[in-house]
Amino acid sequence: MTSAETAERTAAPFPSAEPTPAGSEWWRTAVIYQIYPRSFADASGDGIGDLPGITAHLDDLQSLGIDAIWLSPFQRSPQKDAGYDVSDYCDVDPLFGTLGDFDDMLAAAHARGIRVIVDLVPNHSSDQHEWFQQALASAPGSAERARYMFRDGKGEHGELPPNNWESVFGGPAWTRVVEADGTSGQWYLHLFDSSQPDFDWSNEEVREEFRRVLRFWLDRGVDGFRVDVAHGLVKAEGLPDYIPNPEAGSMGGEDENVPYWGQDAVHEVYRDWRKILEEYPGDRALAAEAWLPTAERTAEWVRPDEMHQAFNFPYLQTEWDAADLRAVIDLSLRAFPGVGAPSTWVLSNHDVVRHATRLALTAENPQGHGIGPDSPGQPIPEVGLARARAATTLMLALPGSAYLYQGEELGLPEVIDIPGEARQDPTWFRTNGERYGRDGCRVPLPWNADAPAYGFNDSGASWLPQPAEWARLARDAQAGVPGSTLELYRTLLAERRARGLGAGSLEWLDGYGVDAVAFRNGNVTVVANTGSEPAALPSGIVIASSGPVTDVVPADTAVWVVDQV
Ligand code: NOJ
């Protein structure tokens, strides 16, 4: 059955549920929980998570206290980049289930008041996408090739790539094709793996196709999209050479003037999409994955006629240092509200070293490089966990919308010692193991301490090996246990909601020392101590604390205190 037929069978109009009234702009304050489907829960037992697995655990997410879920790709894909290589944008990959399973999951989430955002990957498709296969079979200069970025090579016989761009995953960003007559031919651009050819967004046919894709999922009732590589769709005119800054991280987060990131013309695409979303009821939203050097630059993606949210990667990339944190929070609260958008906050996702590990690294670790047994600056796990809990306690008190990544509510660390033969990230292969890549933050979740694969499924299979010490981090080992990371998250999310902190505002407080981030939001006083000496404890009642407090806030600890009544 083709995806169109499947869609017709199951796509009865399915309106978005209204957990909050229309016009509420729920995305301004929402806590959005990222599900990485292949590692969340596996109902089929094949070792890879799936949509029925998500449906089965929605009660756990509801009791955690989140407002929405974002699903990393589950669309049809050869899985060369864990689903970020899509071969059919309007179908579910059989690994994850069916469109019917998606509809069931969406209905079950909406019934619990949980909004659902899906990933959209517009920068590139899979090389198995029908369009790319047609392009390969067609001649240079054809309409089929014009959907992608094919160019003649340099050199006497076109034997050199058209420019010097490198793939985000390492190695050249160009691959040469063999033409139908067997000769070496043109080159195609792939900012990521060679299995992920870049679309040409100057082509109206590409734009029209993605309008169709947006409508397909909006018609099914999704509440919005997380837009992959939202800073990359449009490339600089003439594709000029570029020397990358290796410190900038694989997505170029700290580099200005990269000819394939952040080009002005990309904003037209999102103005167009915004109009489409506004045709639908229920406050549908677009969230940009755009790695840009500053909050000010990132805010360009959320101007009033563009997207609704952008991930605050400058915040994620800030070290555990009070002065740096105060500065990035200040800038964020000026930049995003400055264009009428909420600030977002995020500490972990499927592309970065989990913050329970990252915040204790003692050496540079550019984004996307990952960490393995030979990496310099190995963390002390207890320090990482204490800082992660404190960092989240700080983050969830900030006004705006916050993103959580599955497993951080359990305090999961990055898995550092995944054997080379088990690693699957294309970064690992494309750099010959020089960069470990992102597998360490993608290990399947532990649900039950005593079950096979810790309850990830019933079979015990797991697409990446789970560490032995994860039994004590399993959800059932933490549920109801005072002081556990899970209970800390539940408390923070319940208090955040009850006290309206997402819609609040921030007033900086002095008097807690240079190593403290101290502010008030509504009736909550927050002190996060990033230093090694204790900080003063505000007077009042402690309603949440990331670690034990006595009459002081110890190092690597954060508290929420309300006035005594
Ligand atoms: C960003 C995604 O988050 C990442 O996982 C993926 O590899 C690249 N985009 C390419 O789609």
From TrEMBL:
Residues 1-22 are annotated as: Disordered. Keywords: Glycoprotein. CDD domains: AmyAc_OligoGlu_TS. InterPro entries: GH, GH13_cat_dom, O16G_dom_2. Residues 34-442 form the Glycosyl hydrolase family 13 catalytic domain. The keyword Glycoprotein applies. It holds the Pfam family Alpha-amylase. GO terms for molecular function: alpha-amylase activity. SUPFAM superfamilies: (Trans)glycosidases (SSF51445). Coiled coil: none annotated. The keyword Zinc-finger does not apply. GO terms for biological process: oligosaccharide catabolic process. Belongs to the glycosyl hydrolase 13 family. PANTHER family: ALPHA-AMYLASE FAMILY MEMBER (PTHR10357), NEUTRAL AND BASIC AMINO ACID TRANSPORT PROTEIN RBAT (PTHR10357:SF179). This is Alpha-glucosidase. It comes from Microbacterium kyungheense.
